[in-house]
Amino acid sequence: MPFPTPVPTIAARDPAPAPQRGFDRRSFLKAAGFTFAGTVLAGCEKGAVEKAIPFLVKPEEVTPGTATWYASTCGGCSAGCGILIKNRDGRPIKIEGNPAHPLSKGGLCATGQAMVLSLYDSRRLREPRISGQTAAWDAVDRTIAAKLAETRDGAKGVRILTGSGAGATTLAAIRSFSAAFPDTRHVVYEPLSIAALADAHEQCYGRRIVPHYRFDRASVIVSFDADFLGTWISPVEFTSDYRAGRSPEGPSRAMSHHVQIESRMSLTGSNADARIVVRPDSMVGLLGGLAYYVAKETGAGPAVFASPAAPSPRTASGSPDAEDAMNLLPLLARRLAAAGRKGLVVCGVNGIACQALAASINDMLGNAGVTVELERPTSSRTDNDRETQDLLAELDAGTIGMLVVHGVNPVYDHPRGGVFSAAMKKAGLTVVFAQHEDETAEHADIILPKGHPLEEWDDAEPVAGVVSVRQPAIAPFGNSRSLAECLLAWTGERTGAREAIRRAWKSAVFPRQNAEADFETFWNASVHEGYAVVDPVPSGHHSFDASVVPQLPAGDRKNPGAGADSSSGEGFMIEMYPTVALLDGRHAHNPWLQELPDPVTKVVWDNYASVSPRTGKRLAVEEGDVIRIETGVHILELPAVIQPGQHDDVISVALGYGRKGTDRFTSVGPEWFEAVPTVEPGETVGRNMAPMREIRGNYVSSYRGGVSVTRTGRVRTIASTQIHHSLHVPEHLAPKNAERRPIVQETSLAAYTESPGAGRFETHKVVSMWPDEHRFTKHRWFMSIDLTACTGCSACVVGCQAENNIPVVGKDEVYRNRELTWLRIDRYYTEEEDGVSVAHQPMLCQHCEHAPCETVCPVLATVHSEEGLNQQVYNRCVGTRYCSNNCPYKVRRFNWFDYSRGDDMGRLVLNPDVVVRERGIMEKCSFCVQRIQEGKIRAKQEGRTVKDGEISPACEQSCPAQAIVFGDLNDPASRISASRKHPRFYRVLEEIGVEPSVGYLTLVRNLPEGDGRNG
Amino acid sequence: MGLNNRILSIFLGSGLLLCLTIFLTSYANNVRLPGNHEGYEPVQPISYSHRLHAGELQIPCLHCHSDAGRSRNAGIPTVETCMNCHRFVTAPIVDVKAEDQRAEKSGEKPRRIISAELKKLYDAAGMNPELRPDPGKTPQPVAWVKVHRLPDFAYFNHGAHVSAGVECQACHGAIETMERVRQVSDLSMGWCVNCHRGSNAQGVNGRAVAAPTDCTGCHF
Amino acid sequence: MGAMAERYSILRRPLISGDKNFDQVTREICAPLENKSSAAWWMTFAAALAMLAAGMIAVGYQLKTGIGTWGLNNTVGWAFDITNFVFWIGIGHAGTLISAILFLFNQKWRTSVNRSAEAMTLFAVMCAGLFPIIHMGRPWLAFWVIPYPNMRGPLWVNFRSPLVWDMFAIGTYFTVSLVFWYVGLIPDLATIRDRATSRIKRALTGFFSFGWDGSNITWLRYETIYLLLAGLATPLVVSVHTIVSWDFATSVIPGWHTTILPPYFVAGAVFSGFAMVLTLMLIVRKVLHFEDYITLHHIGAMSKIIIATGGMVALAYATEFFVALYSGNDYERFTFVNRALGPYAWAYWIMVGCNVAVPQFLWSKKVRSNVTMVFILSLLINVGMWFERFVIITISLTRDYLPASWADYSPTTIEIATLVGSFGLFFALFLLFARFLPMIAIGEVKGVLGYGKQPEGGRR
């Protein structure tokens, strides 16, 4: 497997702008434009001399100016999606999902796509450090070897603390390491822990596994606070499966019914057909109740579930919501029972009782092997909260000789992080692998640079039987070594990471398949494909052990009253959740993700307290009002955001903020005298919520009760990309009999089955004044977006940003409504008597055939192409903004300032095929015209026509739900032609006659009769 | 006012007009708009002669600019590429012949002749006069001076043009006659577009082509 | 009554009061140019320069840093910039109207005000012309809006774009107004020349007055060309603001896309123009002691025009609101409800108050003949007309089709400073004009001295 060479210096149209090149042609032109004299002078001007420096010896797989692709495995989280890395001139510039990958199936989440930017983070650690001093590796090895010997003699322990998702190689290395140093234990710590899920299965099935859930096979999904489309276990895979199971078309109309039971408006909840809004501490009671009814319905389950007579917990708002929820349970149970093996209950609560109950319900439904795969578990998740606790105790007791922390940051994100940092000191030696000098690293004796996932060799087995390779797409910037490499080195064995992984595969993976007889071929195929499908390690027989149910803690299987544990009662509850962008905070140094609008609230660059509208009124709190949250232990102040669909008693705050070093973003955004810095110098982006989490029964719980909330009277700016959240105009401004604006057109599955046109807004006949203004003889590019499939996950937003060199503009600019992203996702709430429903609508340039922008541009900077594109010519634009004013969709974006694209290193991520726009220029979605041109040229060179699906804009490519279809309308066989004729097809604002080239498929919800969205 | 007065003014007026026309026409002839680098002929670090290689020796362009057929960039040959031949050819044939004769006369073994320009190449390759890797020297790629420069906002793809059958000379001029490469066309937008229009009408060497005339053919 | 009384006509009242003879007229009108400039002049001029300086700093900073220094955003692409542009163009209207149309209608009273009204037009159009240029993201490329042969294939301008039409319309308007004004100035320049004491002054005025010799033939030619120019200028009064209104009328944005805009804008322009003329004239009258030339009669006449045009504007407001509600188009309806009751209602009601309510006071003769009152009213109307443009341009943009892209707008210091600066420029130019050129057309005023007097008595 060839190593790509380090960044070569090809000067040829390197997009990195060099403003300090003083007197270059463009700045000269600027000056020249002012005066006639200037223009005349300019005639004699030659411009700065440019050098073109070729390779000395060209690596054979690199052709300057063309892209090379490497298959690999995403390192954004432990889900391990398959990715393809696009290299240009030896540097990775884009990450895309690997369409061949059996799990992620070509999609990739926002976080995964943003990983390419963090590769060029100039603040990453480059060199090993011993107590603050830069040191060479052999010095490090010597120190550690000495320490290890001492530890062994002193009969002290070695502990290796890593995140979950460690692959065969690392595990093998750890094994051989512990062979050399007996008292070694590998502790898996995951900040977003699902340990209880694993433990529950250990109790019920005798095997500590996390089952592999198959949402594509489910017909009824009941999710207890599991944000599986956003952040839970494997969002990309789940999104793609979820969508597969929710097609309102086809004879079967196999559209699953999804009920979300949660206390905040999660991304998953915003897509649910029905939401039941309850306090987090009512979950266990509800699960108990559901178990009871399901047992009754199926008769299969053990009759040990107490009949729930629901005395609901007294709540701050006095709304006996749990009771309402209880009344819905029989219906839910009936549905689940009817679905049987196709029913699925998932639970995101990190509590043993909840998980055991969920497991037992699934068992009663008999869905093992159908929607819940126990034989092929999610082997990447081996989180273990209990062991983390023990480690903490051991450290405290001082029995640990050496602590190795790899890729996790417990001091920051563990509820007892403070304790941890103190305890670390008591270990003989702490070695921390980190990308930045983060909260944990700063307490370490030895800091080792952790390679970026795009730099190092590694492997993973996300789901038993799917092993995937992670190969470097660029030589490491820093002087980093993988964990396996180090562990082996410390056992006195020097092997490169690549050798290590090959060896591990030869022994552990290769034997598990019989397709290939020869290891080399197997290995090369696997590296080329990025993954290999092998036999899962047989995990023995799983039979549900009914006896465990009675063993559940007495309180738990009883009713919600008892379910509400110690922490509940008076006052509010506070709930901490991971965001789609930053997760637990591991991506806090990535500006793309910091500026990615939250899929639900649309807020950027901050965390905040989500408050329900009713509570907001009660506390006289409006958006941006700073509220003080007191738990008795902690006091913190956060700006409020009014969140429809939020439980009245629950305040939700995002994790992952308040990371050390995020004050680096002070400089993000333009500099001018009225500008407000994105983050005040010395401060951090948002507040760290991890310490607010409680450890309840050995599990890190995401909520805490007995919280009091008061308003401080102070106000903090909240930068949100949307100021109006409904398709209705404000009541007091609504003209007589004003309709809901037909921008998102939606219907119910039942109605749609009745008539395909259901929910469609019938526009009057539009007569064109220019019947054939454009004849599209060659291609006719067109896009359609299925609103039923779109979950609002925002992967496309980051995909677009990466592809098209879109800079971040900073909090202040977003607050001023100057975000620069070409593709935005509009989110609309519809308040209904029984709750709130949410619609996500990706909005990008609609490439209108009769584009209002084109007629008004004085200089022809935006004109129509003969292929139906609405072209924006940056270098012709003089910036009157008339086009943007006249755009009904307001999808045009203006360069209000010269937005920085990061430091010299950050600019390495720029796509050389897309111009970097200067200040004063209008820009917008181009349908990724650079890809269209590339595809057409390729087709021409190969003497054929463009194949359908061959050209795919970044947004379509990245969509895990395949909601976006792009193609050539002149090709009758293309997917887009089919979509154009689809009964659900409509175009936004069709009635004003601009003839958009982007269409939408109506949003269909599966709402069986007698359903409620409560809350 | 009197008659002579009027005549005077007419006379002066026409005189002024004459001066203006002369000035303006002369200006219009050698006007050069900003960004037009036509005739740019920079001195290169190694005085490599296209006349010799492409002209006399008839080496096809794509032999060295091998990427031109498949990539955006024509690709400037690497030192490695040059060495393919110049590992053996170290000096003009005349000098070599001269040396041989001299050697014949004095009956001694002919020495290896290395021309001054090629020495620069060997230095770049980090080689000593015996063409052996010289530990004292670090290999350094040659920093050629870019001659044909398009602004950032104009996308040009060599591959597309070469595979469409466009002669290199169509844009680069009679390169095989140039000692030092010189920009012969003004590379203005009009120049590009007119060629595209022409090609769409007449085709390129008899082959019909679809040369884009949309803005996004080049600007994105 | 006394001996004087019977010499006056019973039908017409004289335009110029206080029985002047030609020499007196000349002396009085030329006084400001020949005496030392008063302290008042210096103070106002200094103030104007200060405002101008503020504006120049603001614009300089904006050019250096970017349009981002304005309060605009993705949704609201135009606000103060184009509001000011339309406002100033509107101001510019009265000049041509007075000089051309009133001239053709043979309204003698125009003679006392046309000179300064035309000057005002020129300066207003200069101010207006600035904004389309500085509002560009890359003003150094503003010349791309002008069609000229080029090496781009060639690449012309978009003749479908109202901004290009603007460029032509305003260009023409400015040129014609300038020529018209200058031609009217020639005889007076000659007068100054003849009275000039310093050599330079004589030389300059001599050059610019084209060797005017006051002979009958000269006067004849002069009056012919003046008549022709008046005819040429008349259509421009209508065309310019019609075309400006097309910037909005031809768009698709609710609140912009309205067929009523052209007449609406023209009426508004004349309305605001006359308000500004009044404002200036009342100052001039006081400061330069022209009470005899700019009499209550003139003020009354202009007030009446304001009542009339104000009425038209009010009608336009009513009509567009009615049509919006009647249209059955939800977007259109909302736009107007939002204007009246939405977050920017205050701006809307300032507009209605100043442009509909205020002019009604002028119905009373008492008010019309109270200079202070008229002055205040005229100021209020100027304010109201600025807000009219703000309401139409900005409020319509803040709330358009997709609720998700709605946004609010508030101006930055830079924008306010730029507006102030444009007033600075305007007043500075006007004060210089007042200092160096006759504010009132001497020649023409002399022509109407006899007006309203009985022939026998009137002759001198």
- Bin the strand percentage of chain A: 15-25%
Mean pLDDT of chain A: 85
**Oligomeric composition of the shown chains:** heterotrimer
Largest sheet of chain A: 7 strands, mixed
Number of helices of chain B: 9
Specify the number of helices of chain A. Answer: 30
Distance between the termini of chain B: 65 Å
Largest interface summary: A-C, 70 and 60 residues
* Structure classification of chain B: mainly alpha
- The fraction of residues in strands of chain B falls at under 5%
Number of strands of chain B: 1
How much is the radius of gyration of chain A in Å? 29 Å
The total count of strands of chain A amounts to: 42
Low-confidence stretches of chain A: 1-46, 309-319, 553-569, 1011-1015
| Helix content bin of chain B | 40-55%
Mean pLDDT of chain B: 86
Helix share, percent of chain A: 25-40%
Considering the chains and any ligands shown, give keywords for the structure.
heterotrimer, A: 1015 residues, alpha/beta, seven-stranded mixed beta sheet, six-stranded mixed beta barrel, 30 helices, 26% helix, globular, disordered N terminus, disordered C terminus, C: 460 residues, mainly alpha, 17 helices
Q: How would you characterize the overall build of this protein?
A:
The complex is a heterotrimer of chains A (1015), B (220) and C (460). Chain A is α/β, with parallel strands linked by helices and 1015 residues long. Chain A is built from 30 helices and 42 strands. Chain A starts with 24 loop residues before the first helix and ends in a 10-residue tail after the last strand. The model of chain B has no long low-confidence stretch (mean pLDDT 86). The longest helix of chain B is centred in the first third of the chain and has 27 residues, at 3-29. Chain B has 220 residues and is mainly α. With 460 residues, chain C is mostly helical. Chain C is 69% helix and 0% strand. Chain C is built from 17 helices and no strands. Chain C is globular and about 70 Å long. Chains in contact: A-B, A-C, B-C. Chains A and C meet through helix 1, strand 33, helix 26, helix 27 and strand 37 of A and helix 6 and helix 11 of C.
